[in-house]
Design goal:
alpha/beta, Rossmann fold, 17% strand, globular
């Protein structure tokens, strides 16, 4: 009897052996798939590392950009935020670590995480994260802060571009667009049931806020690095002003955006991404104050060694407070605007 026939014979006669063999074959298949995935990840990492080293080597020979000093004497604090830039010192504060834990994140020096934490800290210190509060988000993408707002008892209308516009803008391809409600709870910060009961997902163009959302019915509005993508400096500034009409008296707006920290003169003024200068933020504050709103500006850019460092493409996933975009250096800047009671 050939060996293959013997194996088949014993497998038919002994069911437990047949099950064991099948299990072993499945394990072997899984192990092969894992090995292939590991190989692809290693090659992908090596490729990204090579690209990054090449970019840094090329950058060494270039004239280095200079980070401005805006002469603001007040180092920004994270436990009492105002309108301010992201800095390394804030990320070392216990309050920052607390927000990271609430979002199921480990603290790191990445400005996107700073933006999420900043928005939530601004809302909490102004008593807006509580049961019965109504929030309106613009350009939410897959922001995890929506789920945390729900967890605190808030009801949310989360808005973003329509699917076709989002696809054309590249947000779908870069995995920064929520096509369904569950995309806003990928970290399971709240229960899916709570999400469905307390969040409505709508398509809204930030350059044209619908009249039904501008009736002073929200306790807070927010956006995370969105209004620099509206086409121009002026369109971004006007959005912030327009968003105030969505707030109840006593409401608060919290937005983060790009701040050009290498020039207060030249910048990217139009296109897919614009960079706001210090003077643009000051102009915005003047407009808002003339309309009776309250805003406190801080332009201190940090005093730690990391605050003088800026990243270059392809950007690091971990150390990313300031970066080079086009020929400018930019960082995240948050604004807080209050509507008087």
């Amino acid at each position: 009897m050939k060996i293959e026939a013997k194996i088949k014979f014993w497998l038919r006669r002994t069911p437990w052996l047949k099950k064991t063999v099948k299990k072993a074959l499945r394990i072997d298949a899984v192990n092969s798939q894992v090995a292939e995935l590991e190989r692809k990840l290693i090659y992908s990492y090596i490729e990204r590392l090579h690209s990054r080293i090449s970019a840094l080597e090329e950058h060494v020979g270039k004239k280095q950009s200079v980070i401005l000093n805006f002469d603001d004497p007040r180092p920004p604090r994270f436990d009492a935020v105002v309108s301010q830039a992201s800095t390394a010192e804030q990320i070392l504060e216990p309050t920052y670590a607390l927000w990271c834990a609430r979002l199921n994140e480990k603290p790191n020096f990445h400005r996107k995480l700073w933006e999420y934490n900043y928005i939530l800290q601004a809302l909490e210190q102004n008593h807006k994260l509580a049961p019965g509060m109504n929030g309106l988000g613009f350009g939410v993408g897959k922001d995890p802060i929506v789920a945390y707002m729900v967890r605190t008892g808030c009801k949310i209308i989360a808005t973003d571009l329509d699917p076709e516009s989002a696809y054309q803008a590249g947000w779908v391809e870069t995995n920064q667009y929520s096509e369904k409600l569950l995309n806003l709870n990928e970290r399971k910060i709240c229960s899916d049931k709570a999400l469905f009961n307390n969040v409505e997902l709508r398509n809204v163009n930030m350059n044209s806020i619908p009249a039904e959302l501008s009736q002073e019915q929200f306790d807070f509005v927010w956006s995370a690095c969105a209004y620099e993508h509206l086409g121009s400096i002026e369109q971004g500034l006007q959005f912030v002003v327009n968003s105030m009409s969505c707030l109840k008296p006593g409401g608060i707006a919290v937005h983060t955006t790009e701040l050009n920290v290498s020039s207060n003169d030249e910048t990217l003024t139009t296109g897919g991404t614009v960079l706001f200068r210090k003077r643009d933020i000051e102009d915005l504050a003047s407009r808002l104050r003339r309309l009776g709103y309250e805003i406190d500006l801080n332009f201190h850019l940090g005093s730690q060694a990391l605050d003088r460092f800026y990243d270059v493409p392809p950007y690091s996933e971990f150390t990313h407070l300031k970066l080079e975009l086009d020929r400018f250096i930019t960082t995240s800047y948050g604004i807080i605007v209050k509507k008087p009671s």
